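Z., the sequence and structure:
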Amino acid sequence: MNKRAVALSSGETIFIDGTEIEAAANKYTFVWKKAVTKNQAKLLIELADFVAECEQLYDLKIVYGDTIKMKCVKKLRKKLYALKQSENAVFVHGIGKRKTPLQKSIETLEGYLSRLKKYNRQIYA
């Protein structure tokens, strides 16, 4: 262990072992609560429209009533993955490949869920 002495103005001596600690206090590490709640509200509206679109497109019945709850979204994700499994669909990636509507729907839903988790973490952390 490499130790070096540093003299302070008070005359005391402290020893530093070379450990570097990174501070996470730059201008991009904090978020405004008002901005997060506004973006979360927009996301919930987009998610409601997306669930309605998926219900029509894949002939599913997920939402009962006017409100969309998290369990409805998770149920939709489960049913979309079940459709993928039943159709034996292979997802493609890369340039020059065409994605199926099912793959686009699943990727969009996963993106919405990750954004929603991020907003919840920012609000409640």
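The first strand starts at residue 4 and ends at 7. The chain has three helices and two strands.

Let me know what you think.
H.
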